[in-house]
Amino acid sequence: MIETERLRIYPASENQMQTTISAEADEEMKKAYTEMLEGCLNHPDQWDWYAMWMIELKDGTHIGDLCFKGLESNGTAEIGYGILEAFQRKGFAAEAVKAAVEWAFRDPKVTAIEAETEPENKASQRVLEKCGFVPNGETGKEGPRFSLKRSNQKPAHLIRSASVEDTARLL
Fold first, then answer.
1. Per-residue b/e over 53-67, b at no fewer than 16 CB within 10 Å?
2. Which DSSP string corresponds to the chain?
3. β pairing state of 160-161 and 112-116
4. What dotted CATH number matches 2-170?
5. pLDDT tens digit sequence for 58-82
6. Where residue 169 falls among pLDDT bands split at 50, 70, 90?
7. pTM score
């Protein structure tokens, strides 16, 4: 589990991911969540790198999620994130991404984190810039790609981190 000033962020359990998949109306998101669950089941020793991470306010209110899309052999991980509309424009996305990046860079194998956004999604691009990401000149399926290398990481604001096993005991 990761805790920040306002948030709790933790990898979802298999049951939580299945529930999310069943409830998701958007077919593209349903497919993405299904791929996350499959990654977890295919790589149980790397659960955190494939799982949907729940983003909650400290009072337990679910406000969004994020994910890593596995950890590549070159030490690069891609991050994706989303905040529910009612909670957008309050700094929660940047707070969650900063904390997740801090968590990821605690793993010595991680050399860089990447993300991509749709070209018109200026809010998401601002989140990435606030977190120290810079455009890398590449374009992915969703749009421009951004990178944050370990050497360019901003100072941490992470308060506490715990393993997925600790998180499971809390749920």
1. bbbbeeeeeebbbbb
2. -EE-SSEEEEEPPHHHHHHHHHH---HHHHHHHHHHHHHHHH-GGGHHHHSEEEEEETTS-EEEEEEEEEE-TTSEEEEEEEE-GGGTTSSHHHHHHHHHHHHHHTSTT--EEEEE--TT-HHHHHHHHHTT-EEEEEE-SSSEEEEEEGGGPPPP---EE--HHHHHHH-
3. unpaired
4. 3.40.630.30
5. 999 999 999 999 999 999 999 999 9
6. very low
7. 0.85
